[in-house]
Design a protein that fits this description.
It is built from five helices and three strands. With 116 residues, the protein is of the alpha+beta class. Strands 1-3-2 form a three-stranded antiparallel sheet, with helices on one face. A hairpin with a 4-residue loop joins strand 2 and strand 3.
Length: 116
């Protein structure tokens, strides 16, 4: 009886994490990063990460300035890939085929826009 209660308790805590496993996705999105410090830049990198983490379902964001990609781990039932790409573009960075609008680009520092 004690063993059955222990197993039931473990399933109650671990079950939801196990069931969500196939809904957790990872994607590498090609982007435009024009300098080697965008991810550390307080006005650019912080804005990008904050805008993504503000979205429900985002688990992890890794900006790779060398490969010009943004790796995002997300819960596919809480956010779509299209929403992720649009969020990145709204932060001033292209996201695969989604181009950043001019008004979002204008908010980036000159070096992050590629103007320097």
């Amino acid at each position: 009886m004690r063993k059955a209660l222990m197993i039931a308790g473990m399933l109650a805590f671990a079950g939801p994490a196990l069931w969500a496993g196939d809904k957790i996705k990872t994607v590498a999105i090609k982007t435009t990063i024009n300098c080697d410090h965008c991810k550390m830049c307080p006005s650019c990198g912080a804005r990008l990460e904050k805008s993504l983490y503000d979205q429900k379902g985002i688990k992890r964001v890794d900006v790779d300035d060398q490969h010009k990609t943004i790796k995002v781990v997300y819960h596919s039932e809480k956010i779509t890939l299209e929403t992720i790409k649009n969020t990145i573009a709204a932060s001033g960075y292209d996201a695969d085929e989604v181009k950043a609008p001019a008004e979002a680009l204008a908010k980036l520092d000159a070096c992050c826009r590629g103007a320097e």
